[in-house]
# Entry
Amino acid sequence: MGMKPRPDPVQRLFDLARASIAGEKAAVPPPGFAPRVLRQFSRPVASDLDVGIWERFAVRFLAGALALAAVSVCAPLFNGERPVAPEEDVAVEMVQVAFLER
Amino acid sequence: MSETPQHYLEAWILHRDPHAGERLVESLYPQVARIVQNHLPRNTAVEDLAQEVFVQFFRTIDRIDRGRPLEKWVSRLALNVCLNALRSRRRRPEWRFSDLGPGEQALVETLLQGDDSGREAHENVHARELLSKLLERLAPQDRMLVSLLYLEEKTPAEVADLTGWDSTLIKVRAFRARAKLKKAFSLLSEAEKVRKL
# Structure
C-alpha cells in the first residue's frame, strides 16, 4: 500500500550520466590544433574548373596505361618465352656460323 | 562587428583567411568534442576524431547551406564521423559483473536498490563508464540514437533533422534499443545477485 515505485535503473543511469556531463567544462583545442588542421587546406580559392575531377581522371588514365605497359612487357615471361633482343639474335647466329666453319 | 563563427566562416570561404580559419576551429571545437565524448567510449582519443571532423568540415565547406545554422552542419558531420568510428570498432565480448570496476559494481547495487540519493556528484563518472559499457551491446546506429534521445535529451524530430533518419524508424529503433539495454542491465544484475548468494 502506497509503495514508491522503483525507478527504472537504465533511466536512472542516463540521468546520472547526464549530470556528470553537465558538470564538465567545455573542451578547448590543444595547442597547435587549429593550425595543424588548416595546413592541409592552404590553397587558393577554387576556380570554375573542378580541378579535382580532372586530376582524378588523369591519374586513373595514367595508372591504367602503366598497368597495360607492364603486362605487355612481362607477358612473354609468363608464357615461358625469354624475350630476346635483336642484337642477341645476331650474336647467336654468328657463333653458330663460326662453329660450323671450324 | 561581433565576430561569430558565421563571420569567420564567410572570411574563410571568401578569402581563405588563416586567422578566420583558426578562430572557426576554436569556436566549434567544444561542440565537436562534446559530441565525440557523448557517442564514443571514454578511452577514445577525442583529439584524433575531432581532427577528422574538421578535415571533413573544411573539405565540404563550400557546400554548406548558409541558410541553416552552422552548428547543425557541424553536428551532422561529427555524428557521421562518430558513427563510422563505431562501425570500425571491433565488437567487444559481453561485459560481466566481475569485469566492472569497484565504482561501477557499487553503482549497479545502488541502482538495484532503487535509492541513489546518497551518492556524491563526483561518483557520477562511474555512471558514464557503466552506461558506455552497456551501450556497447547495441549496434552503432542504435547506440548513437539512444545517446541522442536519452543522454542529450533530443526529441525524435530533432534527431531526424540532425541525422536525416526517418522519424518513425527512430521511434521504433529507440524502443527496441531501450529494451536491449534493460536486458543487458538485468543480466549484470542477475550476476550480482548470484554473487551475493
Summary: The radius of gyration of chain B is 20 Å. Residues 6 and 67 of chain B are 11 Å apart (CA to CA). The domain at 100-196 of chain B is CATH 1.10.10.10 (Arc Repressor Mutant, subunit A).
